[in-house]
Amino acid sequence: MVPRTxxxxxxxxxxxxxxxxxxxxxxxxxxASKDPTALTALLSDSLKVRLAEVAFDGxxxxxxxxxxxxxxxxxxxxxxxxxxxxxGENGAAGVVTVSAPDSPVTTITKWFNLLTTNERVKQGLGxxxxxxxxxxxxxxxxxxxxxxxxxxxxxxRLFTAPCRVHYS
Length: 168
What we know:
Number of domains: 1
CATH topology: Glutathione S-transferase Yfyf (Class Pi), Chain A, domain 2
Order of helices and strands: HHHHHHH
Shape: globular
Helix content: 55-70%
Largest sheet: none
Radius of gyration: 16 Å
Structural class: mainly alpha
Number of helices: 7
Low-confidence stretches: 155-168
CATH class: Mainly Alpha
CATH architecture: Up-down Bundle
Oligomer: single chain
């Protein structure tokens, strides 16, 4: 899931960090507020650009790690997991315009859908749906994002830091 050396390893590490620090909070905020505007812009400006860099054409899965990496890496799975609320199960979180056919992120939707056909990803989805901790963590992130957004409506810098949930 993580290449041992070289540029692909660096790409995986960079995209995992981006998922934790930028994407996950943006998805949580979009789910809590039902407003996809910031998330759609973020995806268009970053993930869509990266998919073009790795020559993803929609016909076969291509990893964010590089042009010649056709198996999912840790970065792909982490980003897939963050996007699952808005793109998986027909947009179960109700942020419908992110996955609409005319959305500016249709390339990302194609990449996401190809990743759902991977057997290991399918198995992981089944395991995660059965986990009550996963459900609690998702709800906690959604709720915390909304509270922060209400408390600090003019601060955009707060939404670039990673969200962390602690259970006692």
